[in-house]
Amino acid sequence: MTSLPDPSTPLSADTAAQAFDLLFDADLSDEAIADFLVTMARRGETATEIAAAARAMRARMIPVSAPTGAIDVCGTGGDGHHTLNVSTAVSLVVAAAGVPVAKHGNRAASSKAGAADTLEALGLNLDKAATTAEATLADLGICFLFAQNYHPALKRLGPIRKAIGERTIFNLMGPLANPANVRRQLVGIARPAYVPIYAEALAELGADRAMIVSGDEGLDELSLAGGNDIAEVTGNGLVAMRRLTAAELGLSTHPVDAIRGGDATHNAAALRALLQGEEGPYRDAVLLNAAAALVVADAATDLREGVEEAAETIDRGLANALLNCWIAYK
Q1: Mind giving me the DSSP string for 217-268?
Q2: What percent of the chain has pLDDT above 70?
Q3: Cα gap 314→287, rounded to integer Å
Q4: Binding residue per annotation — 256?
Q5: What pLDDT does residue 111 have?
Q6: What's the pTM?
Q7: Residue 101 included in any domain
Q8: Distance from C-alpha of 74 to C-alpha of 196, rounded to nearest angstrom
């Protein structure tokens, strides 16, 4: 194959693999790359194509060593709800509960404050966090993997994606290309219809255990507002679908606006208050999603136990202490 295939119909596994190798490595025009990505996105990417793109990114990323059982808690972003940083808070709670978390993230793209922005506002030196990532993951059980530092192959595509101005398959790639090669994940996706497709891709990629979740409002995390679609991936490659509401776990229902965020300073203050025991919708959202992450890590037997464990971790001050140690890490 010397040129990109026609993506107007689904690609086979071999053709998709060759296509993404070409996309990253061949001397293709910007127009050819843009046409390929836009046509595929408008048709709707398959699990096989998503898995092929992920493998191509993984083969070209800068890897990070991680303890056995490390997980990631990451959403695809782009849900347009501008909520507080739920997955970042969940990462701290889950790590404080004893599960190593290799948090993959970036600065805000469509929101006012992404994981990197909020952690920086909390006092985390992102440059130092990058150089000490393996050490903090081993010593503290948490690290932040700033995506732009680990995926040099994406640099060429950045201007093309910006010029396209609409989502492509690479808007789905962040959670699938964690530099720590985690095999357990809680993934939020902003489009409920993609939950089973994304789960099939993770199964193809050999995940040990994963949950792919989406709120009915198009939220890229488990929502307190209404129903949630969940796909559970187990190590044998099976995908099981289920529905969930917060009320089933004894948590209060809140509209999405109840956890609307602001800029990095605002979100950082809210996250710190949460870790210091402040109750309310933000805490409930974090408990709900932390419960799912703990189940994925086999650190809780079910979601109800996960909620209790997450609450205890916050209330004992463990997550707040972990954040302080991370910020002060030399």
Answers
A1: TS-SS--SSSEEEEEEEETTS-EEEEEEEGGGGTPPP--GGGGB--SHHHHH
A2: 98
A3: 9
A4: no
A5: 56
A6: 0.94
A7: yes
A8: 17
* Continuous segment of H or E residues that includes residue 49: helix 47-60
Q: H helices of 97-187, where?
A: 115-122, 126-131, 133-139, 147-150, 158-164
105 assigned to a ligand binding site: yes
83 is in an annotated binding site: yes
Question: Is 192 among the domain residues?
Answer: yes
107 marked as binding residue: yes
Rounded to 10 degrees, the C-alpha dihedral 9/12/17/22 comes to -40
Q: Are strands 227-234 and 184-188 parallel, antiparallel or unpaired?
A: unpaired
Rounded Cα distance between 246 and 265, Å, is 28
For residue 200, the one-letter residue type is: E
Q: How many domains does the chain have?
A: 1
Largest CA distance in the chain: 59
Binding site annotation covers 88? yes
Residue 208 inside a domain? The answer is: yes
Q: Which of 180, 163, 248, 201 is nearest to 76 (CA)?
A: 201
CA distance 25 to 27: 7
73 is in an annotated binding site: no
Q: Is 15 assigned to a binding site?
A: no
What pLDDT shows up at residue 93? 98
78 is in an annotated binding site: yes
Domain that holds residue 200: 71-328
User: Is 51 a domain residue?
Assistant: no
Has 266 been labeled as part of a binding site?
A: no
CATH number of the domain within which 252 lies: 3.40.1030.10
